[in-house]
Amino acid sequence: MPTIVPVILCGGSGTRLWPRSRAVKPKPFLPLVGDCTLFEAALRRCPASKGFSPPVVVTGGKHVEHVEAQLGEMEGSQVIVEPAARNTAAAIALAAYRLPDDAIMLVCPSDHHIGDADAFASTARAAADLASEGWLVSFGIEATAPETGFGYLRQGEKISDAGYRTAQFIEKPDLERAKSFLAEGSYAWNGGIFAFRVKDFIAELESHRPQIAARVKEAVAKGQEKGQRFHPDADVFGNVPSDSVDYAVMENTERAAMVPAVMNWSDIGNWHALHEALERDSSGNSVRGAGTVEMVDCRNVLVDTDRLRVSVIGLENVIVVVDGDDVMITSFTGTQKVGKLAGAVNQ
User: What does the buried/exposed string (b/e) look like for 304-320 if buried means 16 or more CB atoms within 10 Å of the residue's CB?
Assistant: First the structure.
């Protein structure tokens, strides 16, 4: 069985989880679900006992201290420090050009919640088996609601006991189309988790996005190691075109596959998604943080307060967040717009 190298991507600012998530310490490095941070949980899902190698973490310079503090002294791990943000195709390529050709990469976002770690590991193994045969594999995450904020994968013909061809990559749909996907049953969410052999990913990238491949390869060749860190050449990497791995590779390859993933997944993309991932009482209410909270006649309310006392009466489907001097209150339907607040934009 091939050894799987977790490639954990740590980027972004998590503005839709403002004011708790901020540019200086975004959501991967916060304990949003349970006692550990989302990044620490991503590391724990990939233990050596289940066939995983030490991780490769790709992150920006402003987050590297958080990464190293939570990664610890894990022997064999490496931290690739991006000189600039150039989207996921370039970030993954940085790791690929640092790994052996036959290594199986498991690309994982650092800011997702996965409630069933055993199911994640078994899905990763199935994906790695397909990747060892030359497939570029997506996790097809079980669609449990007609979500309009995710891309979708359409399941094609069966190619193994656990895998299928990816028949189609679909952009974020409108609500009616998302409802039809859910009713049909052959569609899954595209959560941005991938497995592929290094040489196969590089070959596809060089074929479909040669400029990205050539400049990332040069940036790695001219880069420098400093202990656990690797710094690609900043001048070269600054000229890498920005593109997502979906657009650059996955939607162009003829070897796209998917494995179904039923693992209690959430991207924790906003406060409503976090509320759904948390334990709730019989009225659907959740409380987080060190502050005192009192609710009366409330349903489906999340209060997250770090110090202030918060009292809520007679509300439904509402989020209340207190972080220092910042207070944010929104309905569930408004959670997608939190990132547009001046406080979030200027954090």
Answer: bbeeeebebeebebbbb
Is residue 249 very low, low, confident or very high in pLDDT (cuts 50, 70, 90)?
very high
List all residues 6 or more positions away from 180 whose beta carbon is below 8 Å from its beta carbon.
none
* DSSP element (H, E) containing 260: strand 256-261
Instruction: Compute φ and ψ for 177, nearest 5 degrees.
Output: -70, -40
The whole-number average pLDDT for the span 12-33 is 90
Please, what are the domains in the chain? 4-266 (3.90.550.10), 271-345 (no CATH)
Q: Is the pLDDT of residue 223 over 80?
A: yes
Nearest to 267 by CA among 178, 160, 192: 192
Reading the block at residue 42, the tokens are: 């991503």
CA dist 70 and 29 (Å) reads: 8
270-288: per-residue pLDDT in tens?
999 999 999 999 999 999 9
pLDDT at 1: 62
**Burial track 50-84 (b if 16+ CB lie within 10 A, e otherwise):** ebbbbbbbbbbeebbebbbebbeeeeebbbbbbbe
Two structure tokens written together for 291: 């502050």
Long-range pairs for 327-330 at CB < 8 Å and ≥24 separation? 327/19, 328/18, 328/19, 330/271
